Amino acid sequence: MTCGVAENKPATGIAVIKMPRIAIAECKQEVSTFNPVPSLNDDFRTARGQDVIDYHHKCREEVGGALSVFDAAEGVELVPTFAASANTSGGVLAADSFDRLVGDLLGSLEDAGRVDAAYFSLHGAMQAENEHDPEGFLLQEARRILGEEIPIVVSLDLHGVLTDRMLQHSDAIVSYHTYPHVDFFETGARSARLLLKIASGQVRPVTARVKIPALVRGDELITKTGAISECIQLARAIEASDSGLSAGVMWGNPFTDVPELRTNSFAVMNGDETTAREHALELANRFWKHHEKMQVPLTSLDEAVRQAAGVTSGTVVMMDAADATSSGASGDSNAILREAVRQGYRGHLLTPIVDPAAVTKAMQVGIGATIRTPVGGALDPGRFQPLEIEARVRSLFDGRFQSESFGWSWDSGHTAVLEADNLTIVVGTRPVSLFDRSWFFANGLNPKHFDLVVVKSPHCEPQMFANWCAKLINVDAPGSTSANLKSLGHRNCTRPIFPLDEEVQFDPVVEIYRRG
Q: In angstroms, rounded to a whole number, what is the distance separating the alpha carbons of residues 301 and 334?
């Protein structure tokens, strides 16, 4: 594949083609506004210059997918600038940490020299103490540095909050098509192919967007089986059409409470505003048709434990999405554990908890010793009260492991496995994503060997738990990422919005964005 950027014709009338210099930047984090623990600069994996390339050549994330396309494009010169990706989701980013992150990224763009195009791998659901729209701000400032003429393509998580500023300062956006997410690499590749087409003058993107007043959760958003598949199938068909460039529905992260939080549909077409309008509107209407069932049926804590006690064979999985670290929660909920103890549950229970002080105690006494310690409520004491236990230290672990799903390197800090009678508690120093079984496996624990397993994630790939467990229960527990959205206390998002308000009306308006 050859890609060039056309320059002005010299006196001979022959167009001069130069090979493009493409800047690459990354800044990704998903935030829960309701998590009281602030995110800090140290919570990010960062890289500069060639290290950005070296890391992502070994990692099937968005930048890696983009590199696979750029590497195959003859003559492209890559200009890696700065990459920052949070180790896991978390609370609102502290102001000084955001300022440092912004300074590093924008400084690297200023140092890049002339570039002809730029690819940004963003998430879309960041929030900082001093900025409700970090991604929009970064793109705005990138425009100031790089200039108004160069094409910028942005890849986003479909849980991203798609803001006006993000659309104003980019030429096109590309979002994931899958939930649970399995198309990181493919999304980056789609973004890179589109950027090359824009840079070479093959296409002139026009974007249509419709704002949808809805915050949604639940199984209907699983793209293989849920009602959302109707929208995703259309989005893929749009992209496969002659003038289609990118399309999708981004339903945002309902826990990132910012003014522009909502669901958005979008369609990016090659110069065809009329078709872009039609597609964005059709995507929005298909989504709205199903929005009322896009909520999670939840079972109360006491009823969930009673149901688990009634299962005599196989493993019960309790989905505690309210403390989902991959969605931005603190990870220190002991709500299910506490209720199981209160009811005298006698099955073998396995649960993860973040509690640095309990880990320190376990490390001080060593494997095989017995400690008395509180567990839980270490980070979000407004929601969770510590539960005092007496436990044997079964094992200790440095916390470094690879995820089962993608082979990514994760680090929970020093970790202890504590056994208190029929309770097995994996206690970490810092949160890690828990949308697979890898933290259990890394500590020598197989969930299939337990009667009750607490899973702190809204959804996992089916093979992780759903395909083999005897019963799966979505629990209405407290937490900063609760699917019981009315319990969270949104203050910033535009109202009215479903399901926070009653009888929300949808009067679709199509907005158009194009550059040049």
A: 12
Cβ proximity of 474 and 307 under 8 Å: no
The number of beta carbons lying within 10 Å of the beta carbon of residue 500 is 18
The Cα–Cα gap between 133 and 151 comes to: 21
Say how many Å lie between the first and final Cα of the chain, rounded.
Answer: 26
**Domain 16-294+509-514, CATH class in plain words:** alpha beta
pLDDT tens digits for range 375-404: 999 999 999 999 999 999 999 999 999 999
The C-alpha atoms of residue 457 and residue 187 are separated, in whole angstroms, by: 23
The ranges assigned to domains in the chain are: 16-294+509-514, 299-482
Look at residue 395 and give its three-state secondary structure: strand
- Sign of CA pseudo-dihedral 103, 105, 106, 109: positive
User: Strands, E, within 4-72: which ranges?
Assistant: 5-6, 17-18, 21-28, 44-48
Tokens of 159: 């849980």
Find the farthest-apart pair of alpha carbons in the chain and give their distance in angstroms, rounded. Answer: 88
Mean pLDDT of all residues in 279-302: 97
H helix intervals, 174-251: 184-199, 229-240
Whether 7 has a pLDDT exceeding 60, the answer reads no
